[in-house]
Every structure is written in structure tokens, then in C-alpha cells.
């Protein structure tokens, strides 16, 4: 899962979507392990509008895409 870092007061945090919390049965106060891998910059020539549309498509259809990936 790709998530963006956000500012939370003097700290930086990552939002975990509710559907992931439910799927993994994770609640506030639980400890989790996070594998951090910086995302490489986009290849030159990739249109930012196209990437936004692709990201929105992936987010909207992530259940179907995950099912296909698990085949």
C-alpha cells in the first residue's frame, strides 16, 4: 500500500485506511510493524494528470485489482 506522510503536530504520521484496519483487525493502541521503502521519483515524461487518474482508478477498484493479483 502506498501512503503519503502527513504532519501531525510536531510529528509526521501515516494514515492507515479504515478498510485495512478492519481487514487486519487492528485497533487504536495496537502495535504494528511497518516496512518503509521510499518511493522513487516518477519517470520523466509521465504526465501528472495521467498519474492522478491512474491513482484514482486504482483506489476505486483496489478490491478487484487485489483479487486479480492473488490469482
Summarize this entry quickly:
The protein is an alpha+beta fold.
SSE layout and pairing:
Blueprint: E1 5-8, E2 11-14, H1 18-24, H2 48-60, H3 62-69
Antiparallel strand pairs: 1-2
Structure description:
Helix content is 39%, strand content 11%. By secondary structure, it is of the alpha+beta class. The protein has one domain (5-69). Strands 1-2 form a two-stranded antiparallel ribbon. The model has no long low-confidence stretch (mean pLDDT 88).
Number of domains: 1
The spatial strand order of the largest sheet comes to 1-2
Largest sheet, if any?
Answer: 2 strands, antiparallel
What percent strand? Answer: 5-15%
Structural class: alpha+beta
Q: What general outline do the C-alpha atoms trace?
A: extended
Distance between the termini: 18 Å
Count helical runs.
3
Using DSSP, what is the number of strands? 2
| CA gyration radius, whole angstroms | 15 Å
Low-pLDDT residue intervals, each spanning 5 or more residues: none
> In sequence order, what are the helices and strands, one letter per element?
EEHHH
Percent of residues in helices: 25-40%
Q: Please, what is the average pLDDT?
A: 88
Amino acid at each position: 500500500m502506498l501512503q503519503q506522510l502527513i504532519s501531525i503536530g510536531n510529528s509526521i504520521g501515516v494514515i492507515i485506511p479504515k478498510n485495512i484496519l478492519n481487514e487486519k483487525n487492528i485497533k487504536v493502541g495496537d502495535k504494528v510493524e511497518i516496512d518503509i521503502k521510499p518511493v522513487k521519483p516518477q519517470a520523466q515524461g509521465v504526465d501528472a494528470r495521467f498519474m492522478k487518474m491512474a491513482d484514482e482508478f486504482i483506489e476505486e477498484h483496489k478490491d478487484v485489482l487485489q483479487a486479480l493479483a492473488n490469482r
